[in-house]
Amino acid sequence: MFSIIQAAGWPIWPLIACSIVALALIIERFSSLRVARIAPPKLLDEVLSVTRASLPAPDVVNKLAANSLLGQVLAAGLRSVIQEPRISESNLRIAFETAGRAAAHRMERYLNTLGTIAAAAPLLGLLGTVIGMIEIFASQGGSTGGNPQQLAHGISIALYNTAFALIIAIPSLMFYRYFRGRVDEYLLDFEQAAERMVPHLMRFTAQR
């Protein structure tokens, strides 16, 4: 591996840095976007069951918010009704939407960086290719003929950087699109959960 890096020249170091950052982001997003941390499957039904007869105590709402991102969204709606017993349906929906936007921001964290790496890696590879071509042309100059070592070094820089850039860019783009799809699925789940919670919570405002 060290011999490959040495043959690829200095342009490969930015690509190595991009590969390390991309790998770290992919691992972090896999951990952060797990179903248990975002939207546990039975959480909404449990909340509806617990709040069937009355609103929960504040400590229960705090535990719900600490459960997951979906719990935070549902807790935001519960807090709105608890703090403002006469809240209108439009204001309750705004509370859910605000909490949903905050949750979306947390789920989309680092995804732009991963997408930037996917877009920038081929350009860095192209830079390495250009530098390799410069080395190739330089090896053909002079009155004494070509320099075989410089020619081989230029070819190595061009090919290794191009290949390494594609090795970084393709998986980064695949995981970027995969995580984007996961976030969209979670946001759809949040919207459906909010649609079920709004009429459920409005019963308590009507009673009061």
UniProtKB/TrEMBL annotation:
<dbReference type="GO" id="GO:0017038">
    <property type="term" value="P:protein import"/>
</dbReference>
<feature type="domain" description="MotA/TolQ/ExbB proton channel">
    <location>
        <begin position="66"/>
        <end position="191"/>
    </location>
</feature>
<keyword id="KW-0812">Transmembrane</keyword>
<dbReference type="InterPro" id="IPR002898">
    <property type="entry name" value="MotA_ExbB_proton_chnl"/>
</dbReference>
<dbReference type="Pfam" id="PF01618">
    <property type="entry name" value="MotA_ExbB"/>
</dbReference>
<dbReference type="GO" id="GO:0005886">
    <property type="term" value="C:plasma membrane"/>
</dbReference>
<protein>
    <submittedName>
        <fullName>Flagellar motor protein MotA</fullName>
    </submittedName>
</protein>
<keyword id="KW-1133">Transmembrane helix</keyword>
<keyword id="KW-0653">Protein transport</keyword>
<feature type="transmembrane region" description="Helical">
    <location>
        <begin position="110"/>
        <end position="134"/>
    </location>
</feature>
<keyword id="KW-0969">Cilium</keyword>
<feature type="transmembrane region" description="Helical">
    <location>
        <begin position="154"/>
        <end position="176"/>
    </location>
</feature>
<keyword id="KW-0282">Flagellum</keyword>
<comment type="similarity">
    <text>Belongs to the exbB/tolQ family.</text>
</comment>
<keyword id="KW-0966">Cell projection</keyword>
<feature type="transmembrane region" description="Helical">
    <location>
        <begin position="12"/>
        <end position="30"/>
    </location>
</feature>
<dbReference type="InterPro" id="IPR050790">
    <property type="entry name" value="ExbB/TolQ_transport"/>
</dbReference>
<keyword id="KW-0813">Transport</keyword>
<keyword id="KW-1003">Cell membrane</keyword>
<keyword id="KW-0472">Membrane</keyword>
